[in-house]
Fold this protein.
Amino acid sequence: MKTLTHLDRLEAEAISIMREVVATAEKPVMLYSIGKDSAVMLHLATKAFYPSLPPFVLLHVDTTWKFNEMIEFRDATVKNLGLQLLVHINQDGVAAGVNPIDSGSRIHTDVMKTEGLKQALDKHKFDAAFGGARRDEEKSRAKERVISFRTKDHRWDPKNQRPEPWHLFNTNKKPGESFRVFPLSNWTEYDVWSYIARENIPVVPLYFAKVRPVIERDGGLIMVDDERLKLRNGEKIQNKLVRFRTLGCYPLTGAIQSSASNVSEIIAELQEAKTSERQGRMIDNDGGASMEQKKAEGYF
Amino acid sequence: MSANQETELLRFITCGSVDDGKSTLIGRLLYDVGQVFDDQMTALDDASNKYGTQGQERDYALLVDGLEAEREQGITIDVAYRYFRTPKRAFIAADVPGHEQYTRNMATGASTAQIAIILIDARKGVLAQTRRHASITSMVGVKNVVLAINKMDLVGYSKATYDTIVTDFTRHAKELGFSEIAAIPICAILGENVTTKSANMVWYDGSHLLEYLENVAPFPISHSEFRFPVQWVNRPNLDFRGFSGTVSSGTIKLGQQIIVSSSLQTSRVARICTYDGDLSEASQGQAITIVLEDEIDVSRGDVLSLAGSQLRPRKASDAKILWLSSAPMRLEKDYVIKHATSQTNAKITNIKSALDFATLQDVAADGLAMNGIGNASISLSRPLLVEPYEINRDLGSFILIDKISNETVAMGLFQGQTKPTSNGRKTQFENLAKLAFPNIENPKQTAQKALYGLAISSIATFFMALLVTNSSAISAILAFLDFAFKPVIWFLFLREAREKAEAALANIDGSGI
């Protein structure tokens, strides 16, 4: 009998969750946010349904402020795998001129990500959305169910969640209600990178160290990805050897100084890491419960 | 990295009564194994000042209590899952709430755990909630228990206090069938006996908590026969039809003959398909896609087993259930049951007993309130391949869902089968009764009444014959003929009278006989 390692077990668990949702949902969708977690989730989906292609479309809620390299990587990946991708942009937000620099991270995230996501889910009537969030990422995510119920308004009620004993999921719901599904619930950042190494999964090159043009802002290193990032007084572009531990909207994503230029160097670096993965994400730090609030309102 | 890939996974919970230090212990474990990062430490220290329950000290529980309501109230409401690893093992820790009203969240956390750490406040000893958690832990099949006697610093590191609590718990736990109870005296806040041995408790010569967790061999779940609940039918094109799912128990090999639970049709395994290539065999825990040699009907909810395996899909079973909802439990109400990958209707027909948490004894009951545990009879609207929970976790467990609100109202574990012989006799009698009284709603009871009446009339016949003939042998023969022929006459001739008699029999209440 084959002895399963802990990565084998995590893989089998994620596959089982995906199959369960596809078998019970009417119109599932996979949120594809282009980062390493999405890369792993997408890889697991190709495994779960093989030899069929994953029986759902991918959805990217584009804030229009993602790194250019992310968009290139997204389009290449989708083409390679032969999958269908929907890109949704909150046009109301664009018309109102919402952006991460002038509007601030909270409003930008709320309008362009949370509202944009709800618009897309409503428009296409998706009743189950896979996301790559992990419990290990953040303290309110540690409380999240694997198949997490959302009301018609996409709200999450953290104090009244459906019990999930064993691997038995209650996927029953009324019309208009939906689920957010987290196949990577039990994975850590370390597991994600170990799995990327084991399975040779391609990821956006921004994760690997390279000399990049950055400025210092609000204590972080922000990459100047295009001309929309206007320099403030005293700021100047420096070329530094940096990489990104997580990827989001480029003006809100801090780089770390690192020389790790391949997956095994990243794993070695992780073992020595002194800061958490989301530390570079400006949107998490708007107050102790901010992720919980955003999630309650419909953020992934 | 390569070392990490070979590590095993251990899932455990911390449970026990309110304020026994469950969250603090996990927080401290994470901190001591170096898996709390600098920015999280800064956030923790800020939060400790704002919400902390430890005065000037760092409140490690705030590493785990992630919800705003939890931080405000200083309690754990819902299960938090935390992850850490040592060179030996990867761990998934579920920190479960201690409050009675969140027992359902505790049960959820416990259901996937291999090890349970039951915390006890050394000042308070074994409390009602300690016993409740111990019972639920035992009910969901956890066999290895760590009894962590916490806050030893507050009882002067007293060995006598520790010994008393261990003895007390062991006495209470006798009924619960744990295979191992390892007691460790700790102080979670100061990290004593958590990841290092405490200098204040030299009288304790066992291993510290982390050492135990790294080395414990979890009691094996008895995986016996091959069971494969079909989750999804994989049909990319007309040439491929595979059945996707996760092997629930046992092993399957290429070419073996399998049987389908619903139709009892058989076929052979043509391929065991995965993205990484076909396999020659697969066993418990592997997510695979099975292709069969023949085009037989298999769909989601079916269970594949090896041909020759004793399959007895059942429409009724005994079960232990934990009521999770604040909505009252109703007997004979239709609920949705989710069992492995199938879903159908089920009723709770009877509650035989409920667990009294004070004594850990089953007591007579006719219903269950929220967080109550009881022995119930479940009837299913169609036969399911139900197996006792001790033998197969996946086919032995289920949840009940309210049809209107979609709320998960109960979790349950199927129990071993009632003895088949008495069962068989009962059914035979029932069938006969149905044949005798086809138009009556409750043929079994009516037949019982008729049998009583028949017996009394035969006894009367015996005594009357004895008066006339004065021979007990002849009287006995006459009485026997009376007893034997009346049903024959009933079955054969009295068709018309039968309908009238049936109505009359149904009206007798039977209490006089």
Notes: Chain A touches chain B through 67 residues (CB under 8 Å).
